[in-house]
């Protein structure tokens, strides 16, 4: 393979407690740590390992987002990616729109494999990979926990409800990573300094034929209900009685 493309999304760091605006119109982003979506970081690590096995020549990281997304792309470059592309837009886009933008990049760059996380931890849509594969009319392997490349084909172990599923598919293709695919590497300071010199191309959304129109509108956001305080019981009989009171058991 010649080129691998990895899609990265800028999200609130998974260690940060998300807070909503007082009017419920959205999430408070001021002053909070932003990171690469963890599943996308796993996808990038897998691409780097494929290149290190001499099964690919170049790893390109791409993102669709605001100017601030350059920070996450620079992190991807520090991890080891060769170059980066940012499709710049000031609005949050829906999965189908993002998939169409990624398709334009795929047609321009001609990757042999596109990797991305199975879902983003902010919206949890789990849609972009599948939509991109459908628009590209190429095979897909979602929820991948093990990936093997062999010339023009690949084999993926997928995590499904019934257990594990093994599939073989032709390349080019789309692969979305699950949590157990690998453990991303730690980025050291020398790599961060080197990443500043690597190429990062910025493209306006309109230049790829994309639009920022939305089919859906978020009317409001509400925090999850507070967890009820636990109750101590002295014995099994009291436990059963308490469960009956709550309607959790019958008889």
Keywords:
single chain, 251 residues, alpha/beta, Rossmann fold, 9-stranded mixed sheet, 11 strands, 26% helix, 27% strand
What do you see in this structure?
- The protein has 251 residues and is α/β, with parallel strands linked by helices.
- The chain has one domain: HUPs (Rossmann fold, 3-Layer(aba) Sandwich).
- 26% of the residues lie in helices and 27% in strands.
- The protein contains six helices and eleven strands.
- The chain has a nine-stranded mixed β-sheet, sandwiched between helices.
- The longest helix is centred in the N-terminal third of the chain and has 15 residues, at 38-52.
- The mean pLDDT is 91.
Order of SSEs, N→C?
Answer: EEEHEHEHEHEEEEHEH
Question: What is the overall pLDDT average?
Answer: 91
Number of separate helices:
6
Fold-level CATH name:
Rossmann fold
Q: Tell me, briefly, the overall form.
A: globular
Q: Briefly note the structural class of the backbone.
A: alpha/beta
In CATH, the architecture is 3-Layer(aba) Sandwich
CATH superfamily: HUPs
Please state roughly what percent of the residues sit in beta strands, choosing from under 5%, 5-15%, 15-25%, 25-35%, 35-45% or over 45%.
25-35%
Indicate the radius of gyration in whole angstroms. Answer: 21 Å
Q: CATH top level?
A: Alpha Beta
Count the domains: 1
Instruction: Give the total of beta strands.
Output: 11
Strand order of the largest sheet: 9-8-7-10-6-1-4-5-11
């Amino acid at each position: 393979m010649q080129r691998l493309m990895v899609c990265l999304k800028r999200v609130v760091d998974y260690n940060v407690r998300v807070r909503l605006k007082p009017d419920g119109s959205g999430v408070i982003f001021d002053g909070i740590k932003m990171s690469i979506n963890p599943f996308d970081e796993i996808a990038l690590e897998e691409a780097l390992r494929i290149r290190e096995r001499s099964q690919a020549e170049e790893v390109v990281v791409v993102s669709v987002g605001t100017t601030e997304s350059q920070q996450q792309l620079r992190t991807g470059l520090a991890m080891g990616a060769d170059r980066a592309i940012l499709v710049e837009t000031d609005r949050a886009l829906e999965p189908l729109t993002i998939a169409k933008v990624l398709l334009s990049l795929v047609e321009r760059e001609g990757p042999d494999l596109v990797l991305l996380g199975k879902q983003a931890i902010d919206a949890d849509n789990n849609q972009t990979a599948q939509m991109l594969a459908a628009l590209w009319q190429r095979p897909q392997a979602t929820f991948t926990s093990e990936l093997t490349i062999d010339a023009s084909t690949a084999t993926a172990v997928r995590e499904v409800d019934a257990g594990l599923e093994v599939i073989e598919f032709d390349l080019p293709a789309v692969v979305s990573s699950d949590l157990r695919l690998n453990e991303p590497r730690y980025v050291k300071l020398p790599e961060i300094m080197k990443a500043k010199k690597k190429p990062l191309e910025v493209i306006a959304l309109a230049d790829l034929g994309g639009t920022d129109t939305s089919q859906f509108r978020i009317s409001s956001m509400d925090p999850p209900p507070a967890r009820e305080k636990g109750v101590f019981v002295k014995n099994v009989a009291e436990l059963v009685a308490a469960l009956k009171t709550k309607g959790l058991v019958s008889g």
